[in-house]
Design brief:
alpha/beta, about 270 residues, 6-stranded mixed β-sheet, single chain, Lyase 2-enoyl-coa Hydratase, Chain  A, domain 2, 2 domains, 3-stranded mixed β-sheet, 2-enoyl-CoA Hydratase, Chain A, domain 1
């Protein structure tokens, strides 16, 4: 029996795949799914065999975000007064952006269908976004009298820029894959075939590289975004001195000089 609720977790070929698994509810969040997602990320990060993670949705939807039916009933994560609800957000769904913000390994969103509301925000938490043609994207909170409660105002602006994020958030409009690719919300649109297959190809390319170098390179990019040049250069010098003294660096040099594929061990 799986330890995960409303979610599947699988590992194959150094890649962990996390599948949101509430197809009948368009993969909307439940508290069980939130807890399971955080636990799955913990498992992937602590497993040295995992070098890259893919997040996708079951069926034809990536994620509809919040469960609107549960909202109307004021049940589960949506029950309580102002103070209780605030704590529900801090201790509930906001655990996901906090966990992904300190997740060291690369994460790919394989967007197999609509990603709206908190589902769009989850996609923005990932490092790389690949979408199937025909998917729709929207920060639709204002359409039901809400704001992006899981950090979407911060996350979306980081991905597409302030002005575009503000437009999407205050209009609540849906955009298609053509516009999503144009504004940089997704890096690749899969016109034919299975988006998960394409995501796995990208993940394997990442997994072929030196694991520690990949993790520190990702960390350097994210941390440098908020730093001045001097601080970013100091960070780069520190990380470079670490990886330059690893067996994987020696293996990479040897493989390059010998014209063969490197065998990185992490």
């Amino acid at each position: 029996m799986s330890d995960y609720v409303d979610l599947r977790y699988e590992v194959s070929e150094n890649i962990a795949t996390i599948t949101l698994d509430r197809e009948e509810s368009r993969n909307a969040y439940t508290q069980g799914m939130i807890d399971s997602l955080v636990r799955a990320l913990d498992a992937a990060e602590s497993d040295d065999d995992v070098r890259c993670v893919i997040i996708t949705g079951a069926g034809s939807t990536f994620s509809a975000g919040g469960d609107v039916k549960l909202m109307r009933e004021r049940g589960g994560m949506f029950e309580g007064d102002v103070v209780h609800l605030r704590n529900q957000y801090l201790r509930g769904i906001q655990r996901i952006p906090r966990r992904l913000a300190r997740f060291e390994k690369p994460v790919i969103a394989a967007i197999n269908g609509p990603a709206v509301g908190a589902g769009l925000d989850l996609a923005c938490m990932c490092d790389i976004r690949i979408a199937v043609n025909g998917a729709r994207f929207g920060s639709t909170f204002v359409k039901i009298g809400l704001i992006p409660g899981d950090g979407g105002a911060y996350l979306l602006a980081r991905v597409v820029g302030f002005a575009r994020a503000l437009d999407m958030i205050i209009t609540g409009r849906l955009i298609d894959t053509l516009e999503a690719e144009r504004i940089g919300l997704v890096g690749e649109v899969v016109l034919e075939g299975d988006v998960l297959t394409h995501a796995r190809k990208r993940a394997r390319k990442i997994a072929e590289n030196a694991p520690l170098a990949v993790r520190l390179a990702k960390s350097a990019v994210y941390q440098s975004y908020d730093l001045g040049l001097d601080a970013a250069l100091n960070l780069a010098a520190t990380y470079q001195s670490i990886v330059q003294n690893t067996p994987d660096h020696e293996e990479g040099l040897a493989a390059f000089l010998e014209g063969r594929k490197p065998d990185f061990r992490g």
